[in-house]
Specification:
Number of strands: 7
CATH architecture: 3-Layer(aba) Sandwich
CATH superfamily: Response regulator
Strand content: 15-25%
Number of domains: 1
Structural class: alpha/beta
Largest sheet: 5 strands, parallel
Number of helices: 5
Order of helices and strands: EHEHEEEHEHEH
CATH class: Alpha Beta
Strand order of the largest sheet: 2-1-3-6-7
Helix content: 40-55%
Mean pLDDT: 86
Amino acid sequence: MTRPLRVLHLEDSPRDAEMLHDKLKTAGVSTDIVLVNSKESFEAALSGDSSGDSFDIILSDYNVPGYDGIAAVMLAREKRPETPVIVVSGTMGEDEAVKYLHVGATDDLLKARLERLVPAVQRAIQEAEDSTRPSPIAFSI
């Protein structure tokens, strides 16, 4: 049996958090989710995960009162550079999405199109795993 997916989720709306968590559960993704709803709790979770394990993925709301997604992505990339970050938004234009990708987000999703959540999470984790594997050494004879 594989271990549950460790998720750090920054979201200020309990309803929206429940929607995302239900989407993962319905798809059969076993998760251990740490839900935080403020800048302070997000920073604390990034700085010292109480379980001692790292997170497999970070889901970040686009806009939490007193904190914005750009700052959250930048801090996540600084503190946990190996962990993919997906930004989830109720409304995000193309220009904003490009900004997130430029500061290190792996992907961005609209809350109205959560059917992309599970494939985006799977792809982000696979890419992170592939980037940490040593490259095969080519020998020439």
